């Protein structure tokens, strides 16, 4: 376990993209499709030649296929939290899309309950890491499915669900189409973050903030608009930066062009996150080391990012 002089917090962490290889192996065996560790690694970890976000998202095909029972979702949640505990995290928000786990008869509500059972299982194991759960609507989901996800998030907001999110291939559907769902969440007092400006236009960031989002997932495209960056500064919006993932999805072409240092230096409230520990083959400590080496961040500056994360956390 790596220790730091500040609390380690991951606000942007996808459950299905962060399962351990041993857990995957047990799932494949249980499902009668046993795979070796190397086969699993190849299927769920992005290659060095990844060209775009759709290619990155293909790494979720196997976990989606395997996580279709309440037992699998509960144990998957426990598996990820166990990893975070071992890594010494203080707090993490796990996000997942309930609609992805309804292909074999589960309802979205059953999927949510199963994940919350996994959180309770970790609590009963006396893990110290604090956990918040975010429900993800999906860009390419049907309006009815996304409405159901939003309603579940509101229904569970005082009993385990910390917030709402919108994820998926950002440019597939205009951001404006999701305005009614976020208006509903806002009116219900449910905090939300939105994947915006990852591999899409910075205008999506502007729209997300207009909906009432206090956090933005990735937000890389804001670097192309001085007006957008001023909006982030003025409204004190938290940016959930995921440097390794951003390079892999080609949200930015190279580490040298990643805007996290520029954002930080001008006072935008950036945080550092993993996105998907297994898909991206990373941990929060690896991201810290990357920031130190590539962008010359000091531990004092990393501590400031931790303070930003505490300020923006939905479940603390």
Work out the helicity level: 40-55%
- Secondary structure tally: strands: 8
* Subunit organisation of the chains: single chain
What share of residues are in beta strands?
5-15%
The secondary-structure element order is EHHHHHEHEHEHEHEHEHHEHH
> Tally the helices: what do you get?
14
Strand order of the largest sheet: 1-2-3-4
CA radius of gyration is 18 Å
Q: For the terminal residues, how far apart are their CA atoms?
A: 23 Å
Class from secondary-structure proportions:
alpha/beta
Query: Which sheet architecture does the biggest sheet show?
Result: 4 strands, parallel
Shape: globular
Mean pLDDT: 94
- Low-pLDDT parts are none
Describe this structure in words.
The protein is of the alpha/beta class and 316 residues long. Helices cover 45% and strands 14% of the residues. The protein is built from 14 helices and 8 strands. Helix 7 links the parallel strand 3 (130-138) and strand 4 (161-167). The protein is globular.
Please supply descriptive tags for the structure shown above.
316 residues, globular, 14 helices, 45% helix, alpha/beta, four-stranded parallel β-sheet
């Amino acid at each position: 376990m790596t220790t730091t002089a500040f609390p380690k917090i991951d606000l942007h962490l996808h459950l299905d993209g962060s399962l351990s290889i041993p857990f995957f192996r047990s799932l494949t065996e249980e499902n009668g499709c046993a795979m070796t560790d190397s086969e699993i690694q190849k299927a769920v970890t992005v290659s060095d030649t990844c060209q775009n976000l759709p290619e990155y998202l293909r790494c979720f095909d196997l976990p989606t296929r395997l996580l279709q029972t309440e037992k699998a979702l509960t144990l998957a949640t426990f598996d990820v939290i166990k990893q975070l505990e071992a890594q010494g995290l203080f707090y993490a928000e796990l996000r997942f899309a309930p609609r992805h786990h309804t292909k074999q008869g589960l309802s979205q509500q059953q999927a949510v309950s199963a994940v919350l059972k996994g959180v309770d299982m970790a609590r009963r194991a006396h893990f110290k890491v604090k956990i918040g759960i975010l429900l993800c609507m999906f860009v390419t989901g049907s309006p009815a499915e996304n409405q159901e996800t939003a309603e579940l998030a509101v229904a569970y907001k005082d009993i385990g669900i910390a917030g709402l999110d919108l994820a998926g291939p950002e440019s597939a559907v205009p951001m404006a189409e999701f305005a009614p769902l976020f208006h509903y969440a806002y009116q219900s007092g449910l905090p939300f973050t939105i994947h915006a400006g990852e591999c899409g236009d910075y205008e999506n960031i502007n729209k997300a903030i207009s909906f009432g989002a206090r956090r933005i997932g990735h937000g890389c495209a804001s670097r192309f608009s001085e007006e957008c960056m001023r909006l982030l500064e003025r409204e004190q919006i938290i940016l959930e930066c995921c440097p390794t993932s951003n390079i892999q999805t080609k949200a930015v072409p190279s580490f040298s062009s990643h805007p996290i240092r520029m954002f930080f230096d001008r006072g935008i409230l950036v945080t550092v996150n993993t996105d998907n520990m297994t898909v991206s083959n990373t941990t929060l400590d690896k991201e810290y080391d990357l920031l130190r080496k590539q962008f010359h961040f000091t531990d004092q500056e990393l501590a400031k990012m931790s303070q930003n994360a505490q300020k923006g956390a939905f479940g603390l």
